[in-house]
UniProtKB/TrEMBL annotation:
<dbReference type="Pfam" id="PF03401">
    <property type="entry name" value="TctC"/>
</dbReference>
<dbReference type="InterPro" id="IPR005064">
    <property type="entry name" value="BUG"/>
</dbReference>
<protein>
    <submittedName>
        <fullName>Transporter</fullName>
    </submittedName>
</protein>
<dbReference type="InterPro" id="IPR042100">
    <property type="entry name" value="Bug_dom1"/>
</dbReference>
<comment type="similarity">
    <text>Belongs to the UPF0065 (bug) family.</text>
</comment>
Protein backbone atom coordinates (compact mmCIF):
# COMPACT_ATOMS: atom_id res chain seq x y z
CA UNK A 1 0.00 0.00 0.00
CA UNK A 2 2.86 2.36 0.84
CA UNK A 3 4.34 1.80 -2.63
CA UNK A 4 1.05 2.53 -4.30
CA UNK A 5 0.56 5.65 -2.16
CA UNK A 6 4.08 6.87 -2.84
CA UNK A 7 3.69 6.24 -6.55
CA UNK A 8 0.39 8.09 -6.53
CA UNK A 9 1.93 11.02 -4.61
CA UNK A 10 4.95 11.25 -6.90
CA UNK A 11 2.72 11.05 -9.98
CA UNK A 12 0.53 13.86 -8.66
CA UNK A 13 3.57 16.05 -7.95
CA UNK A 14 4.96 15.38 -11.43
CA UNK A 15 1.64 16.18 -13.08
CA UNK A 16 1.30 19.37 -11.04
CA UNK A 17 4.79 20.48 -12.06
CA UNK A 18 4.05 19.66 -15.67
CA UNK A 19 0.79 21.57 -15.59
CA UNK A 20 2.50 24.53 -13.98
CA UNK A 21 5.12 24.59 -16.72
CA UNK A 22 2.57 24.24 -19.49
CA UNK A 23 0.43 27.01 -18.05
CA UNK A 24 3.31 29.38 -18.72
CA UNK A 25 3.10 30.95 -15.26
CA UNK A 26 6.26 32.72 -14.20
CA UNK A 27 7.44 33.84 -10.78
CA UNK A 28 9.52 36.66 -12.31
CA UNK A 29 10.27 39.13 -10.85
CA UNK A 30 10.82 37.66 -7.41
CA UNK A 31 13.53 39.95 -6.04
CA UNK A 32 14.41 43.69 -6.18
CA UNK A 33 15.12 45.31 -9.55
CA UNK A 34 17.63 47.96 -10.58
CA UNK A 35 17.21 50.47 -13.40
CA UNK A 36 20.51 51.98 -14.51
CA UNK A 37 20.88 55.51 -15.84
CA UNK A 38 24.28 55.36 -17.60
CA UNK A 39 25.02 59.00 -16.72
CA UNK A 40 25.28 61.36 -13.78
CA UNK A 41 22.29 62.83 -11.98
CA UNK A 42 20.09 65.49 -13.53
CA UNK A 43 20.09 64.52 -17.20
CA UNK A 44 17.43 62.91 -19.37
CA UNK A 45 18.43 59.30 -18.63
CA UNK A 46 18.46 59.90 -14.89
CA UNK A 47 15.06 61.60 -14.96
CA UNK A 48 13.59 58.85 -17.15
CA UNK A 49 14.85 56.09 -14.86
CA UNK A 50 13.52 57.82 -11.73
CA UNK A 51 10.13 58.61 -13.29
CA UNK A 52 9.85 55.04 -14.59
CA UNK A 53 10.55 53.40 -11.21
CA UNK A 54 8.37 55.90 -9.33
CA UNK A 55 5.26 55.36 -11.46
CA UNK A 56 5.71 51.57 -11.69
CA UNK A 57 5.70 51.49 -7.88
CA UNK A 58 2.92 54.04 -7.35
CA UNK A 59 0.65 52.36 -9.91
CA UNK A 60 1.44 48.98 -8.31
CA UNK A 61 2.53 47.58 -11.67
CA UNK A 62 5.65 46.05 -10.09
CA UNK A 63 5.51 44.55 -6.61
CA UNK A 64 9.25 44.34 -6.11
CA UNK A 65 11.40 47.22 -4.90
CA UNK A 66 12.96 49.19 -7.76
CA UNK A 67 16.02 51.39 -7.36
CA UNK A 68 17.96 53.65 -9.73
CA UNK A 69 21.74 53.53 -10.12
CA UNK A 70 23.81 56.18 -11.89
CA UNK A 71 26.73 54.82 -13.90
CA UNK A 72 28.31 57.76 -15.76
CA UNK A 73 31.06 57.59 -18.35
CA UNK A 74 31.57 57.95 -22.08
CA UNK A 75 28.04 59.13 -22.83
CA UNK A 76 26.66 55.74 -21.77
CA UNK A 77 29.35 53.65 -23.49
CA UNK A 78 31.24 52.71 -20.31
CA UNK A 79 28.27 51.09 -18.59
CA UNK A 80 26.90 49.52 -21.77
CA UNK A 81 30.17 47.56 -22.09
CA UNK A 82 29.72 46.28 -18.54
CA UNK A 83 26.04 45.54 -19.13
CA UNK A 84 26.65 43.63 -22.37
CA UNK A 85 29.50 41.53 -20.98
CA UNK A 86 28.65 41.03 -17.29
CA UNK A 87 24.87 41.33 -17.04
CA UNK A 88 23.76 39.55 -20.24
CA UNK A 89 21.74 36.98 -18.26
CA UNK A 90 20.59 39.23 -15.39
CA UNK A 91 16.89 40.14 -15.84
CA UNK A 92 16.95 42.11 -12.58
CA UNK A 93 18.97 44.93 -14.09
CA UNK A 94 17.48 47.14 -16.82
CA UNK A 95 18.98 50.17 -18.54
CA UNK A 96 17.47 53.33 -20.00
CA UNK A 97 18.99 54.80 -23.14
CA UNK A 98 18.40 56.92 -26.21
CA UNK A 99 20.23 57.61 -29.50
CA UNK A 100 23.73 57.31 -27.91
CA UNK A 101 23.30 53.54 -27.72
CA UNK A 102 23.48 53.69 -31.54
CA UNK A 103 25.75 56.73 -31.95
CA UNK A 104 28.52 55.38 -29.68
CA UNK A 105 28.61 52.17 -31.71
CA UNK A 106 28.88 54.00 -35.05
CA UNK A 107 31.14 56.96 -34.31
CA UNK A 108 34.85 57.06 -35.11
CA UNK A 109 36.29 58.65 -31.96
CA UNK A 110 35.82 56.73 -28.70
CA UNK A 111 33.94 54.01 -30.52
CA UNK A 112 32.05 51.43 -28.46
CA UNK A 113 32.01 47.85 -29.75
CA UNK A 114 28.58 47.45 -28.13
CA UNK A 115 25.19 48.73 -29.24
CA UNK A 116 21.47 48.05 -28.98
CA UNK A 117 21.93 44.60 -30.56
CA UNK A 118 23.75 43.56 -27.36
CA UNK A 119 20.55 44.11 -25.37
CA UNK A 120 16.86 43.21 -25.55
CA UNK A 121 14.88 46.36 -26.48
CA UNK A 122 11.81 46.35 -24.23
CA UNK A 123 9.91 49.52 -25.15
CA UNK A 124 10.24 53.09 -26.35
CA UNK A 125 8.50 55.36 -23.85
CA UNK A 126 9.02 58.97 -24.88
CA UNK A 127 10.41 61.38 -27.40
CA UNK A 128 12.22 64.62 -26.69
CA UNK A 129 14.09 67.20 -28.74
CA UNK A 130 17.47 68.87 -28.68
CA UNK A 131 17.91 72.47 -27.61
CA UNK A 132 20.66 75.07 -27.91
CA UNK A 133 20.73 76.81 -24.54
CA UNK A 134 22.53 79.89 -23.18
CA UNK A 135 22.52 81.60 -19.78
CA UNK A 136 19.73 84.11 -19.14
CA UNK A 137 22.20 87.02 -19.18
CA UNK A 138 23.93 85.87 -22.40
CA UNK A 139 24.29 88.41 -25.19
CA UNK A 140 22.88 85.84 -27.61
CA UNK A 141 19.15 86.09 -28.29
CA UNK A 142 18.94 83.93 -31.41
CA UNK A 143 20.79 80.93 -32.83
CA UNK A 144 22.22 82.76 -35.85
CA UNK A 145 24.07 85.36 -33.73
CA UNK A 146 25.78 82.52 -31.83
CA UNK A 147 26.66 80.68 -35.05
CA UNK A 148 27.98 83.89 -36.63
CA UNK A 149 30.45 84.28 -33.76
CA UNK A 150 31.52 80.64 -34.01
CA UNK A 151 32.02 81.08 -37.75
CA UNK A 152 34.09 84.25 -37.16
CA UNK A 153 36.40 82.64 -34.57
CA UNK A 154 35.42 79.26 -33.15
CA UNK A 155 38.29 79.32 -30.62
CA UNK A 156 36.56 82.11 -28.68
CA UNK A 157 33.26 80.25 -28.18
CA UNK A 158 32.97 77.24 -25.87
CA UNK A 159 29.98 74.96 -26.31
CA UNK A 160 29.33 72.03 -24.02
CA UNK A 161 27.18 68.97 -23.58
CA UNK A 162 26.54 66.10 -21.20
CA UNK A 163 28.16 63.45 -23.37
CA UNK A 164 31.44 62.66 -25.10
CA UNK A 165 32.54 64.04 -28.49
CA UNK A 166 30.67 62.32 -31.30
CA UNK A 167 27.73 61.37 -29.09
CA UNK A 168 24.23 62.79 -28.77
CA UNK A 169 24.75 66.18 -27.12
CA UNK A 170 27.70 66.78 -29.44
CA UNK A 171 25.61 65.93 -32.51
CA UNK A 172 22.83 68.25 -31.26
CA UNK A 173 25.38 71.01 -30.66
CA UNK A 174 27.32 70.82 -33.94
CA UNK A 175 24.47 69.91 -36.29
CA UNK A 176 23.20 73.53 -36.52
CA UNK A 177 26.80 74.72 -37.08
CA UNK A 178 27.34 72.13 -39.82
CA UNK A 179 24.10 73.10 -41.54
CA UNK A 180 25.15 76.77 -41.24
CA UNK A 181 28.32 76.11 -43.22
CA UNK A 182 30.75 75.72 -40.30
CA UNK A 183 33.23 72.82 -40.24
CA UNK A 184 31.94 70.86 -37.20
CA UNK A 185 35.47 69.74 -36.36
CA UNK A 186 36.40 73.38 -35.58
CA UNK A 187 33.64 73.85 -32.98
CA UNK A 188 35.16 74.03 -29.47
CA UNK A 189 33.15 71.37 -27.63
CA UNK A 190 33.65 70.40 -23.96
CA UNK A 191 31.98 67.24 -22.65
CA UNK A 192 30.58 66.56 -19.18
CA UNK A 193 29.18 63.41 -17.57
CA UNK A 194 25.48 64.21 -17.81
CA UNK A 195 23.14 67.06 -18.67
CA UNK A 196 23.10 68.31 -15.07
CA UNK A 197 26.85 68.92 -15.12
CA UNK A 198 26.64 70.62 -18.52
CA UNK A 199 23.97 73.04 -17.24
CA UNK A 200 26.09 73.72 -14.15
CA UNK A 201 29.02 74.57 -16.46
CA UNK A 202 26.79 76.96 -18.41
CA UNK A 203 25.51 78.70 -15.28
CA UNK A 204 29.05 78.81 -13.88
CA UNK A 205 30.26 80.69 -17.00
CA UNK A 206 32.45 77.78 -18.12
CA UNK A 207 30.54 77.51 -21.41
CA UNK A 208 28.91 80.04 -23.73
CA UNK A 209 26.19 77.60 -24.84
CA UNK A 210 25.20 73.98 -24.43
CA UNK A 211 23.45 71.39 -26.55
CA UNK A 212 21.03 69.36 -24.46
CA UNK A 213 17.48 68.01 -24.48
CA UNK A 214 14.66 70.49 -24.00
CA UNK A 215 13.19 68.59 -21.04
CA UNK A 216 16.46 68.88 -19.09
CA UNK A 217 16.44 72.65 -19.66
CA UNK A 218 12.77 73.07 -18.71
CA UNK A 219 13.15 73.78 -14.97
CA UNK A 220 16.00 76.26 -15.60
CA UNK A 221 13.93 78.00 -18.26
CA UNK A 222 10.96 78.30 -15.88
CA UNK A 223 13.27 79.67 -13.17
CA UNK A 224 14.58 82.32 -15.57
CA UNK A 225 18.16 81.01 -15.45
CA UNK A 226 18.54 80.18 -19.15
CA UNK A 227 17.34 81.10 -22.62
CA UNK A 228 16.69 78.51 -25.32
CA UNK A 229 17.78 79.80 -28.72
CA UNK A 230 16.26 76.99 -30.80
CA UNK A 231 14.85 73.47 -30.63
CA UNK A 232 15.45 70.57 -33.03
CA UNK A 233 11.78 69.63 -33.49
CA UNK A 234 10.09 69.83 -36.88
CA UNK A 235 7.41 72.16 -35.48
CA UNK A 236 7.17 74.46 -32.47
CA UNK A 237 6.49 72.79 -29.16
CA UNK A 238 3.62 73.83 -26.92
CA UNK A 239 3.31 74.96 -23.31
CA UNK A 240 6.39 76.60 -21.79
CA UNK A 241 8.23 76.23 -25.11
CA UNK A 242 5.71 77.84 -27.44
CA UNK A 243 7.85 80.96 -27.96
CA UNK A 244 11.04 79.06 -28.85
CA UNK A 245 11.74 78.86 -32.60
CA UNK A 246 12.77 75.66 -34.32
CA UNK A 247 16.08 75.50 -36.20
CA UNK A 248 14.09 75.39 -39.43
CA UNK A 249 12.22 78.58 -38.51
CA UNK A 250 15.62 80.15 -37.90
CA UNK A 251 16.68 79.27 -41.44
CA UNK A 252 18.77 76.22 -40.51
CA UNK A 253 17.66 73.02 -42.21
CA UNK A 254 18.15 70.56 -39.34
CA UNK A 255 16.03 68.52 -36.95
CA UNK A 256 16.74 65.75 -34.45
CA UNK A 257 14.41 63.61 -32.32
CA UNK A 258 15.60 62.15 -29.02
CA UNK A 259 13.71 58.95 -28.28
CA UNK A 260 14.07 57.27 -24.86
CA UNK A 261 13.48 53.64 -24.06
CA UNK A 262 14.11 50.74 -21.73
CA UNK A 263 16.38 47.79 -22.46
CA UNK A 264 16.93 44.42 -20.83
CA UNK A 265 19.86 42.00 -21.04
CA UNK A 266 20.48 40.24 -24.34
CA UNK A 267 19.72 36.75 -23.00
CA UNK A 268 16.35 37.59 -21.52
CA UNK A 269 13.91 34.69 -21.28
CA UNK A 270 10.51 34.70 -22.96
CA UNK A 271 8.56 34.97 -19.70
CA UNK A 272 10.73 37.89 -18.56
CA UNK A 273 10.22 39.73 -21.83
CA UNK A 274 6.48 38.99 -21.70
CA UNK A 275 6.31 40.49 -18.18
CA UNK A 276 7.87 43.77 -19.34
CA UNK A 277 5.79 43.88 -22.53
CA UNK A 278 2.62 43.75 -20.43
CA UNK A 279 3.91 45.99 -17.63
CA UNK A 280 5.33 48.77 -19.78
CA UNK A 281 2.19 48.86 -21.93
CA UNK A 282 0.14 49.23 -18.74
CA UNK A 283 2.51 51.99 -17.62
CA UNK A 284 2.09 53.83 -20.91
CA UNK A 285 -1.71 53.64 -20.64
CA UNK A 286 -1.86 54.83 -17.01
CA UNK A 287 -3.02 58.31 -16.02
CA UNK A 288 -0.11 58.57 -13.58
CA UNK A 289 2.41 58.17 -16.42
CA UNK A 290 0.59 60.71 -18.57
CA UNK A 291 0.86 63.24 -15.72
CA UNK A 292 4.55 62.40 -15.30
CA UNK A 293 5.16 63.05 -19.00
CA UNK A 294 3.50 66.43 -18.69
CA UNK A 295 5.49 67.34 -15.59
CA UNK A 296 8.76 66.59 -17.40
CA UNK A 297 7.80 68.16 -20.74
CA UNK A 298 8.15 64.79 -22.48
CA UNK A 299 6.16 63.77 -25.51
CA UNK A 300 4.55 60.30 -25.35
CA UNK A 301 5.84 57.85 -27.95
CA UNK A 302 5.26 54.19 -27.04
CA UNK A 303 6.57 51.28 -29.10
CA UNK A 304 6.48 47.65 -27.97
CA UNK A 305 9.55 45.44 -28.10
CA UNK A 306 9.21 44.29 -31.73
CA UNK A 307 8.30 47.75 -33.07
CA UNK A 308 11.05 49.36 -31.01
CA UNK A 309 13.67 46.97 -32.37
CA UNK A 310 12.54 47.66 -35.95
CA UNK A 311 12.67 51.41 -35.29
CA UNK A 312 16.20 51.12 -33.88
CA UNK A 313 17.32 49.50 -37.12
CA UNK A 314 15.90 52.46 -39.06
CA UNK A 315 17.54 54.92 -36.65
CA UNK A 316 20.87 53.18 -37.15
CA UNK A 317 20.73 53.98 -40.89
CA UNK A 318 19.74 57.61 -40.25
CA UNK A 319 22.40 58.24 -37.59
CA UNK A 320 25.12 56.69 -39.73
CA UNK A 321 24.21 59.17 -42.48
CA UNK A 322 24.41 62.09 -40.02
CA UNK A 323 27.77 60.96 -38.63
CA UNK A 324 29.12 60.52 -42.16
CA UNK A 325 28.03 64.05 -43.00
CA UNK A 326 29.78 65.33 -39.88
CA UNK A 327 32.93 63.32 -40.62
CA UNK A 328 32.50 61.36 -37.39
CA UNK A 329 31.55 57.88 -38.59
CA UNK A 330 33.95 55.00 -38.04
Amino acid sequence: MWKVGAFTLLTAVALTACGSKESGKSSYPEKPLVVVAPSGAGGGWDKTARSLTKILAEAKLVDQTMTVENKPGGGGAVYLAEYATQESKNPYKLIVSSPPIIINNLKKEGNSPYGYKDTTPLAQLTKDFGAIVVAADSKYTDIKSLLDDIKADSSKITVAGGSAPGSMDHVITVLPAYKYGIDPKTVKYVSYDGGGEAIAALLGKNADAIGTDISSAAEYLKAGKVKVLAVTSAERLGGDFKDIPTLKESGIDAEFTIWRGVFGPKEMKDDELAFWEKTLKSLNDSEAWKKELQANAWEPEYKNSADFEKFLGEQEVLIKDVLNALGMAK
